Structures are given as structure tokens and as C-alpha cells.
Here is the input.
Amino acid sequence: MLSKAMTGRTVHNRIVRGRAWYLDVHATTPVAEEVLAAMWPWFSERFGNPASAGHAWGWEARGALEGARDQLAGLLGIEPGELVFTSGATEANHLALMGVLEAAGAGSRLVCQPTEHASVLEVARRWGRQGGRVTLLPVDGDGMVPPEALEDALREPAALVSVMAANNEIGTLQPLPELGALCRAAGVPLHADGAQVPGRVPLGQVVPHVALLSLSAHKAYGPKGVGLLMARRRSPRVRLEPQVPGGGQEGRRRGGTVPVPLVVGLAAALARAEASVAAWSERARDAAAGWRRVVDDALPDVRWLGHAERRLPGHLAFVLPDRTATDMMRACPELGFSSGAACQSGAPSHVLLALGFTAAEAGRMVRLGWGPHLDEKDPGHVAGVLERGLGGRSLA
Ligand code: PMP
Here is the structure.
């Protein structure tokens, strides 16, 4: 944990002066200035309710909302009507799972896997408690679902398969092309949690393989509190039971006044990320390769997590051999990194437990990542801090 002297203003001042580096980009990212600029007018100057059909304030807001929807549909290569705006990937995952399972009927079967985000696993548990059937696929040592395991599971009828595109904790990319082909052959929709995808993997490498996709803005330099669910209307046609009943918003699939500034920010952030994905991935890989060398030199017994190649560019996760993540945080107070997912802070990572690590080993897990808020010199500075902080000396 950060010492008291490094909280609040102090951290902010150090970051501004370039002496502290935020590397917890898989937890969240700052809103990019151009994204903030796009959102700004929609908070107060242009504040209408997009569902107000009787006056210009409402029409203007509706125009912004539908403009953002069209822009996002263009990025994803789908129809605008195939998007439902939500409060983030958590809600999009909930709508995807419960929406499809409830529409399929009581007792219908969900197939997923144990390294999913908690927002998928908790819904799966709830479905099980309600009498639904849930099959958890096995994963290999890198957290990857073997396609043969899905092939076996699909010998029995299922209403939905949910496998994340990219794991937030260990960085592994799932083999969506293979899994998608199996689902298509079986006539079962495939949902992917794509919260970590924008700016790291081109959307075109994910969208064609899935029937449903959850995305979030705040992992890609957009605002917190907004995301979307893509649900295809054709081949296959996905039927969704609304989970937030209310007004007729979002084609009756999600009630509630749509937050226009946030949706404008979501579209701006994802457009920016998609336009930069090739350049960002290259810089991310270079930075991570440099940091990895430093860690390997300092800690020969380090255990790297996730798949070596099929992983999010710039994402590094490892288990320290001889000290806890907290020890490392104390030794490198000018680096902002984490020990796994922010939303699970405090508990041993279910992802590491699913990979066969002990709770103590999970406490020695470190995750850090590159993001485009870092400038060209920053990776070198970070490497210097890592070298000093790890120092090759056992703290145990
Ligand atoms: N899925 C994954 C893979 C994530 O990393 C996160 C964020 N930790 C979420 C879902 C939840 O996203 P949101 O914060 O937008 O609800």
C-alpha cells in the first residue's frame, strides 16, 4: 500500500511532475482530454433528455445519442439497433447472461469458464441457484479454454456460451475464432466480455466471432459509468429479456434515461482507441518487453502468468518468488500497479486459484501495464524504478 505521505495531493503532484507512473491501466484509465472535450457541452449547455420527443432540447440530445450509436456501430461493423447502452461492462455482462437465459426459459443451460470476471461468475452462480444449469469449462495453465472442451460441452443443448475475450488479471486472450466457430456450428450464441479489448486488440478481431459483446469506456481513456452490450439481430438472432425494466429506452431492452455525455464519451474513447490500436500495441509490447527483462534479471524464480504470446499487449502479470505484492509496492512507491483486479482487492484472486495457485501465492501476484498516457521516456524511468525496487534482494 502507499504510505500516507504518498496519498492525495502528493501522488498527484508527483504524477504531474513526471516522477510517478500510473501502470494500473487494466483497472481504469484517466479520461483523455479530447474525450472530455467531446463530453463537456452535453452536461450543461445541451442537457436535454433524449427521450423528450416534443421539443428541440430533446431532439438535440437524441441527435447526439443516435450519432454516438451510429459511430459505435460503424466501429464494430454492425447495425446501430444492435447496441444497448449500459452503465459499464458489469451491467452489459449481466444483461447478456440473464437476458439470454431468461429469454430461453427456466432451467436453460449456460456454459462459461472459471477465469471470467466476477460480474459473469456471480450471475452464473445466481442462475444456478434459480435452478438453471451451468457448465464450467476447464482452462489450461495459461487460463485458456481448450476448444475441444467446448466441443464436448456443446454435445448437450445450451442457451449461451460466455467466454471473455481477454483476461484482466493474467492478460490471456481466449481463442475466440475457434470457440466462435464451434458455437456457430452448434447454433448457440457466444458472448464475450470485451472490457479489456479497446485500444489493445482491434475490434475486427473480436466482433465477427461473437453474437454478444460487452464493452466499457473507462479502460480505454473514457468515463466511468458507461458501457454497451452488442447483441446481434441476425445470424444468430439474439433474444434478450430486459433486466432493468422501465421506459421504452434502448428499444425496451434497458430502461432509464440514457446519460448522453457519457455515451458521447464512450463513442469518442472507443473511436480514439480503435484508430490508435496498432501504434499503441507496438509501444505497449516494447515497454512490457523491457520491464520483463528487468524483472527476470532481478528475480530469476519469478513465475509469469498468462499466455506468452496470445496476451494483451503491454500487460504483465507475475508471482513474486520471495515477497508479497505489498512489499513491492512499498519498495516502488512511485509506481501505481496492483495485485490483481481492483474490484476483488483484499481477497485472493479467483483467477489464480483456478490456475492452481495457493492463496499465499495469489498474495504475491503483481499486475502492471503500459498505457498511452505514458510518454516515450516513461518506460525507461519505470524500468529504473523496478530495478531499484526489486533489487534482486530477498525481502522475505
Ligand atoms: N470485465 C472485465 C474483464 C473487467 O476487467 C472489468 C473491470 N474490472 C469489468 C468487466 C467491469 O467493467 P465495469 O467497471 O465497466 O463495470
